[in-house]
Amino acid sequence: MEKSSAIINSFVDRVRRFASVHELFVYGGKYIVALSGGADSVSLLFVLKHLEHELGIGVEAAHCNFHLRGAESVRDEEFCKQLCDRLSVPLHLIHFDTQAYADLHRVSIEMAARDLRYGYFENLRRDIEAQDICVAHHRDDSVETVLLNLVRGTGLRGLRGIQPRNGNIIRPLLSLSREDIVQYLDALGESYVTDSTNLHNDVKRNKIRLDVMPLLRELNPSVSQSIFESSLRVGEALKVFDEAMKRSIADVTATSPSHHLTISPPHHLVISVERLKKQPSPEYTLHEILSSYGFTSAQIEQIYGSLDTCSAGKIIASDSHELAFDRGSLLVQPRTNVADSARSMRIPETGTYVFSNSLKIKVAAEDCGDDYVPSRAADCVCLDASDIKFPLTLRHIEQGDRFVPFGMNGMKLVSDYLTDRKKNVFEKRAQLVVTDAQQRIVWLVGERTDNRFRISKETSKALRLTLLQ
Question: Is the whole model's pTM more than 0.90, yes or no?
Answer without folding.
Answer: no
